[in-house]
Amino acid sequence: MKILKQSQSVPLKERLRQKLHPVRYPRMSGTMAAILGFLLDAPFTDPRIAEIIITFDGFVLARASGEVGANRFIGEYSDLIRNWRCLLSFAGLSQSEAVEAESLFAERIGYFGRTTA
DSSP secondary-structure letter at 53? Predict the structure, then answer.
């Protein structure tokens, strides 16, 4: 019971930062760590991602902090969705944490087209 009270006292976004922190996933790429930093507003990489853009043909571009345009190629949107869902499945999130994580993704990056198999 004491553990439950402690976890509820920690803000939801902070619990997500802890559970999704790249240090917990040694095989996570620097790119995915930067995306997580963008989603969670956390300094996981330097430079940080300031903006993510999905192109009409399904590619992901990023603008790093201090840069003018989204000049950094991330990869294919379908790969990003697959990697995101894989991370969430391994993170051991509670239902409220999972909803918050998906909401942050939808708000900051967006879901486009068919995203489920």
Answer: E
